[in-house]
Amino acid sequence: MTRFDSLLESVGGTPLIGLPRLSPSPDVRIWAKLEDRNPTGSIKDRPALKMIEQAEKDGTLRPGATILEPTSGNTGISLAMAAKLKGYRIVCVMPENTSEERRQLLRMWGAEIVSSPAAGGSNEAVRVAKKIAGEHPDWVMLYQYGNEANALSHEEGTGPELLADLPEITHFVAGLGTTGTLMGVSRFFRKTKPDVRIVAAEPRYGELVYGLRNLDEGFVPELYDATLIDSRFSVGPRDAVRRVRELLELEGIFAGISTGAILHAALGQAAKAVKAGEKADIAFVVADGGWKYLSTGAYEGTVDEAEDRLDGQLWA
Amino acid sequence: MAIEVRIPTILRTYTDGAKAVEAEGATLTALIDDLEGNHPGIKERLIDNGDLRRFVNVYINDEDVRFIGGLDAELADGDQVVVLPAVAGG
């Protein structure tokens, strides 16, 4: 379907693209789900719209309301687009070590931005947002980390799309942030094709981001259910940058840095399948395009230089 | 058998500020016991009631140990262990 009554109607239905050069053999194939083809250019359009619709349905979100959300960028941008079209005010709490492009886009879509300290990364954004929510009980915090509509958007959308386009799918690989993508897609496959292995790629940032005052300040999203995941990998900026460049060099796809981390985990699964002599069809998520991260310096110079520039930044 | 263990900022009070230390052990449990011998107090920060603490993540060669046997996860010479506090993404 290529005609829609409004932009909001066009969320999802993204293409699945074969990667003949990155796939190790005809028996072990890698497929990219291009989530940058969503209206604001990221996978977050799916959960953002679903969370808003759900909140409208259950009456928590009423005309003229103010939405509040802790976000490292993409979810805020998606919510701001939907809020603009639907007439809500939106306030985003965002760590200060996120790229300038994300801030500019948020402002263009009309979001007000509250900055949270760089040290502690998104943990701090969550903490600050919860504090603000306490001061403004009439504001609506959709809270992507604990909102079931986040995972549901993938259980009802991303998962079924993957199965329809790739019935032979053996692995699904996605980034682990709110955990919504992995939880939702896993729930779908556990019901329809339980052999599909669900693999998480978690970005590993520089030390600044893990600068908690004590371990009790750690954070595991309320949505996270470890039984829905089969393996989980931590991927640092060096591997993420290397892979995101390979993706463009070999397959022509210009993706955001977190997608490099996801591809790294997908290639790891592919190598395992080759070694075991098994057939595999591995689908992974291209979470967004690279446009919003050009200013980070990840796409220029040597991998060493890019790695240095990303230190301390929230690159995923 | 030498295994490099990377220590997060928050636990470096136990390693005299060292970002990485060497330890030995055929399993994660054995490795943490060995760490405790040289850096007393660190074990209690990693383990609670015989299990990894909720906000502590441990990776062997970048793979989360909770999916490869937890404290029983096996280690080999040259492996790299990374300890990190759990943080939010998104």
Describe this structure in words.
The complex is a heterodimer of chains A (316) and B (90). Chain A is α/β, with parallel strands linked by helices and 316 residues long. Chain A has two domains: 182 residues, Rossmann fold; 97 residues, Rossmann fold (3-Layer(aba) Sandwich), CATH 3.40.50.1100. Chain A has a six-stranded mixed sheet. A four-stranded parallel sheet of chain A has the order 5-4-3-6, sandwiched between helices. In chain A, strand 3, helix 2 and strand 4 form a beta-alpha-beta unit. Chain B has a single domain, classed as Ubiquitin-like (UB roll) (Roll), CATH 3.10.20.30. Chain B is built from two helices and seven strands; from the N terminus they run ββααβββββ. With 90 residues, chain B is α+β, with helices and mostly antiparallel strands. In chain B, the strands form two sheets. A five-stranded mixed sheet of chain B has the order 2-1-7-5-6, covered by helices on one side. Chain B has a two-stranded antiparallel sheet with strand order 3-4. In chain B, 18% of the residues lie in helices and 28% in strands. The chains are: A alpha/beta (316), B alpha+beta (90). Chains A and B meet through helix 4, strand 8 and strand 9 of A and strand 5, strand 6 and strand 7 of B.
Question: TL;DR of this structure?
Answer:
Chain A has 316 residues and is an alpha/beta fold. In chain A, 39% of the residues lie in helices and 17% in strands. Chain B has a single domain (3-85), classed as Beta-grasp domain (Ubiquitin-like (UB roll), Roll).
Index terms:
heterodimer; A: 316 residues; alpha/beta; Rossmann fold; six-stranded mixed β-sheet; four-stranded parallel β-sheet; 9 helices; 10 strands; B: 90 residues; alpha+beta; Ubiquitin-like (UB roll); five-stranded mixed β-sheet; two-stranded antiparallel ribbon; 7 strands; globular
